[in-house]
Amino acid sequence: MATGKINVSVDNIFPLIKKFLYSDHEIFLRELISNATDATLKLRHITSIGEAKVEYGNPIIEVKVDKKGKKLHLIDQGIGMTEEEVKKYINEVAFSGAEEFLNKYEDGAKETGIIGHFGLGFYSAFMVAKKVEIITKSYKDEPAVHWSCDGSPKFSIKEGKKTDRGTEIILHIADDSTEFLEDNRISELLRKYNKFMPIPIKFGTKTETLPKPEGAKEEDPAPTQEVDNIVNNPSPAWTKQPSDLKDGDYSGFYRELYPMQFEEPLFHIHLNVDYPFNLTGILYFPKLTNDLNIQKDRIQLYQNQVFVTDNVEGIVPEFLTMLRGVIDSPDIPLNVSRSYLQADGAVKKISSYITRKVADKLNSLFKNNREDFEKKWNDIKIVIEYGMLSEEKFFEKADKFALYPTVDGSYFTFEELQEKTKATQTDKDDKLVVLYASDKEAQHSYIEAAKAKGYEVLLMDSPIIGHLMQKLETSKEKLSFVRVDADHIDNLIKKEDTQISKLSDEEKEKLKANLEEVIENKSYTVQLEAMDSDASPFIITEPEFMRRMKEMQQTGGGGMFGMGGMPEMYNLIVNTNHELVGEILNTKTAKKRERLINQSIDLARLSKGLLKGEELTNFIKRSYEMVK
């Protein structure tokens, strides 16, 4: 029997491991099963190339809880270790056996699937154990080895009694970590971190029902048998080639990832690249609401099928964090700060690749089945609009498939919209004026008025659309978005058939004076316009610029005009050709004129949603008086 001292640079390495190496002690199980997986994959590789003259077989990894003995066992049937290898890989802390193995077999490294190391790997066991034993036997014809350490830098090593190939790790669980002796806790961790490990993992047994024997009666119970309880799926969908999968396979994998999610995803994107980095995965577009926050953290990040995190910000572009699915890459550095991730060159390339892949998939769906794409638009638009705002490359690609729906349910690309409206919706400077509504019900009267003039009105109602319109206006030449209830559209759009006012200049001045005399609210600016006689007599609009500033302030733009916020500013458009306006002008008594003006303005305010409280009550009383 030999004794010695572990080769570390400081004697207090174990307290450092226990307290500071990982933020979460539960990670030890991921580390140890990762090591067991590495050992098994190494064996598979060297047997496949003929270096090891042993039978690979069908190895599994087994996890066993000995609650009475306060021990946790992890057993693999992998490559095992000789005494020399135990001294090299275990006693020299932070020396990575997996890394050395990959360097040795560099040509076949991609095919081995070896996980590599997550830091100090094996020594994470001391976060939860007061003593750790290793009983291992190499595939080589050498004696088994029994290594033991009580959590200090001292260890013992002797010949072991193990006769079969592989390694058993025995953790003597510390008094402050007895939660890891509970079957439910271990099951939870295996589901969380090892659900898709490439080697089958056994944890206990389960009862399996067998077919009834021929001739059995209906009331006879079906026979059962105890079988290994394999807790993982070693061959998840993302590890396969897209050509080997059908739509049903993708749907089944989605349900495996999200068993409590009952809605089917709209479509999927299979990621598969091996240069200039390694990345596989499947992303799913779920049905999305207009809430930008509740959908996040549904994409799971893996490294060679080992779960790492579901917080993928910095790796996946932010606008795609609302998607669901899996990303697996050995090239993403783990257990490092987010600021490191954001500065890492490989991560930036991965993020760009994912952005491009998603854009290409969306363009393909649009070209191959536009009708289906239009049906799904409302469920995916928030991701696309967010992407156009936040990622310049995605913005450029989205020009081919981003849709602009009208209030009547038609869909246009921007190029199609431009072609359809350029003849009727350009202003005096030949700038295209795109009219839109943000609320079909609230802006119904304005929509109808615009449609009556032959104008196309878009329905743009997502929470970030105001910001996107600003980006579109700055990136495209001669373009202006105007909401239907903003600045009066006849002032913005070039019209060949300009209306002639029925009122003389003198009558206009008199009408304007009458109106300003009655209107107490100084936030209203009176504008007299000659319109069709059947158009509304009074219309209230809000300057598009001011309205947008107010919306930006409400969504986090800050108080740009001081603590008081944006001022209220409205235009009162008066149709000088309407019969009611003529009656107001010609009314003999001031009282009747005042009542007509107040009633007409309040009707316009009601249409705009501005009539509330006491003013609404007074309007209702006045209306009943006029009806009587």
Task: Describe, in plain words, how this protein is organized in 3D.
This protein is α+β, with helices and mostly antiparallel strands and 628 residues long. 37% of the residues lie in helices and 19% in strands. The chain contains 20 helices and 22 strands. The strands form five sheets. The chain has a nine-stranded mixed sheet, with helices on one face. The protein has a five-stranded mixed sheet with strand order 10-11-14-12-13, with helices on both faces. Helix 9 (345-368) packs antiparallel against helix 10 and helix 9 (345-368) packs parallel to helix 11 (392-398). The chain is elongated. It starts with a strand and ends with a helix. Mean pLDDT is 83; it is low at 94-98, 114-119 and 557-564.
What are the salient characteristics of this protein?
alpha+beta, 628 residues, 37% helix, 22 strands, five-stranded mixed β-sheet, 20 helices
Shape: elongated
Radius of gyration: 36 Å
Counting DSSP H or I runs of 4 or more residues, the number of helices is: 20
Structural class: alpha+beta
Distance between the termini: 112 Å
Could you tell me the number of beta strands?
22
